[in-house]
Amino acid sequence: MAGKLQFSLVSPEREVFTGLVDQVDAAGVEGDFGVLPDHAPFMTALREGRVTVIDGNTRRAFDVQGGFADVNAEGLTILAEHAVEVAAT
After folding, report:
1. SS3 state at 26
2. Handedness of CA 50, 25, 4, 88 (dihedral sign)
3. What sign does the dihedral 35-24-70-73 (CA atoms) show?
4. 17-58 pLDDT, tens per residue?
5. Cβ proximity of 60 and 53 under 8 Å
6. Intra-chain end-to-end CA distance of the chain, in Å
7. 74 CB neighbour count, 10 Å cutoff
8. CA-CA-CA-CA torsion for 58, 11, 36, 48, nearest 10 degrees?
9. Are 37 and 24 in contact (CB under 8 A)?
């Protein structure tokens, strides 16, 4: 069984979300991408768009305005210029 992905979404004001999840989908400047546990490391700039956090049957969605995503051995961190939780679609 696959493990979980450590994910943190941080804005200048506060830590918006942190936890162990199954998958995170985000809007990169070069296209949308998804991150699963044990993903290869990479870093990318984000464009304005939706970050969707998937954990089992639960989905949480956040509107993000700019920032960076960093995937490394510890997990995924998104440093957003602005992030707010919205109703998942």
Report:
1. strand
2. positive
3. negative
4. 999 999 999 999 999 999 999 999 999 999 999 999 999 999
5. yes
6. 27
7. 11
8. 90
9. no
Inter-residue long-range contacts of 64-70, CB under 8 Å, 24+ positions, other chains counted: 64/9, 64/26, 64/27, 68/43, 68/44, 69/26, 69/28, 69/33, 69/35, 69/43, 69/44, 70/43
Q: Burial, 87: exposed, middle or buried (Cβ in 10 Å; 0-12, 13-18, 19+)?
A: exposed
Helices and strands in the chain: count of H runs, count of E runs: 0, 8
Instruction: Write down the residue that tokens 């809007």 correspond to.
Output: 27
- Comparing 1-5, 11-15, 47-51, 77-81, the range with the smallest average pLDDT is 1-5
Q: Give me Rg for the CA atoms of the chain.
A: 12
Of 52, 72, 71, residue with least CA distance to 62 = 52
